[in-house]
Amino acid sequence: ELADHKDSDNKFCLCVEARGLRKADYMSKSDPCCVLFTKSNQRHAAWTELARTECIQNEHDPVFTRSLNVVYSLETVQHIKLALYDLDHGKADLVEKNLLGELETTLGTIHEAPEQKVDEPLMWQGKVSGGIKARMEVLKDSGRVIDFRVRASELDGGHSADPYLRLVRLSMGNVWMTVFESETINNSNAPEWAPF
Hints:
- Strand 2 and strand 3 form a beta hairpin.
- Residues 1-8 have low confidence and may be disordered.
- The chain is 3% helix and 39% strand.
- The chain is globular and about 60 Å long.
- It has one helix at residues 107-112; strands at residues 9-19, 32-39, 48-52, 68-73, 79-86, 99-106, 117-124, 127-138, 166-170, 176-181.
- A 4-stranded antiparallel β-sheet has the order 4-1-8-7. Strands 3-2-5-6 form a 4-stranded antiparallel β-sheet.
- The longest helix has 6 residues, at 107-112.
- It is mainly beta and 196 residues long.
């Protein structure tokens, strides 16, 4: 949820992807989620969670489809932390042992970067632990809501498949970005996905 803001503030979304995440699970790959924290400019201010991406199962190089919405003020230094956690089974607990790595920066640093994009190392226990890319894009609210209902037929030449649906959009930097990925429908050549 975006807080009230002044006319000099702008609504943005942060699009995040990571690479080379450490393996935090014993039997499988990590299940990463990116959490956005902010803090005030006061000396001993605590980090406060602002938003989260979805959790991606068994992936060390996640490209998150859910962006992180922020309000950027040109007049204020806004400290942020992008922290990646291994959230097994979608559990919401953000405990230190599940931390995969983090980046502390400011919204201004990302906003002023070429193409409003940064590519930085993730830190974990004082060492580099993978990398993170964050891209800032203007968030435009048209006030419209679109409902999708999608089905397909005769996929894979009549053989059973495990189809899923991915919607992409062209970003400001001319990069195709996934904005939605459906559930997989197992063993079907005529799938119908849940409305979204």
